[in-house]
Amino acid sequence: MKENIKILFEHYLAGKTDPEQEKILMEYLADPANADSEFHGAMEKAWAKQTRETDYSRTAAQGLAQIWDKVEERQPKSRSLFPLLKYAAAIVVIVSASLGWYAYQKTQQPVQTAIAFLSKTTQKGEKVKLILPDSSIVYLGAGSKLTWPSHFVKGSLRNIRLEGEAFFEVKHDASSPFIVHSGQMQTQVLGTSFNIYAYPKDGTFSVAVRTGKVKVSENSAGKLKQLSLLTPGMKLLYHLKARDYTVSNERITEVNAWIKNSFAFKDISLPNMLKSLERYYNIHFEVKVHKLNQCRYNATFTNKNIGEVMEEIRVMSGKKMKYKIDTANKTITVWGEGCQ
């Protein structure tokens, strides 16, 4: 039996197990009767080999990010609680053996036996307000996903993951830095309010600060490179492909304006603006004329329905852009001569 479990363990780490094999492995590891098995002894040996000079804070952050990747690979298309909660401890232990997270856990006393991960995914046209275990508040934007542990440990990093857009009001705790992981970008605070825009397909990442101070870093090949310290009214825009960034000033009132149905766009191309409007209004755009892609706009829409928004864009184009709204199919077709 133990040999079979060891083989399953190796296959699991290699991503070669099917759901039935994973269930068998999780049930075995979750059984307290197997706590002293050779299997767990092997993990102790793996931990003992870790170098004492390891930067555990950084290892913990990177390890946790990879654990999330492993968990999400096996997570069903569910928008709520990870369904195998009773196996959560086993999942963490398995992934820990290969990531060095087990080493970090050994430095924390008492050692936690389980870390359950929760997640929330919003659909297009949807936004929600969430309260995290530390009482921090998150406003999650449309078409976004937030993943966080079911509880935070006092004195340890508060790590969460974001794909999409969210505005954070972080509970101050000097002993427990709050870190948001968004792809290769990392945003760290102690207690402040700020907005992150990090849709993987958009090619850009941005952080805008409303209150407090935020440290933004890039994670490249496991090494963190600090990009900037942001204070109220500052915004960092990072281009993922070019790997460069700019820091500019932002109106404090615009940092989280989308929470109150106000959307501000600055020198933005028409395709990128339409991409955002798709998420906000749960609508699909079809642009028939490619030269419209070169049009750029500065615009703010406050409490407008999509019809009113499109009419304002048409006027800003000098009435050269045309559009047709198909309400039944939630589609807007756009064409025209260009822009003003």
From TrEMBL:
Positions of the Protein FecR C-terminal domain: 263-333
Limits of the FecR protein domain: 121-215
Domain of life: Bacteria
PANTHER family in the cross-refs: PERIPLASMIC SIGNAL SENSOR AND SIGMA FACTOR ACTIVATOR FECR-RELATED, PROTEIN FECR
Protein name per the record: FecR family protein
Species of provenance: Pedobacter riviphilus
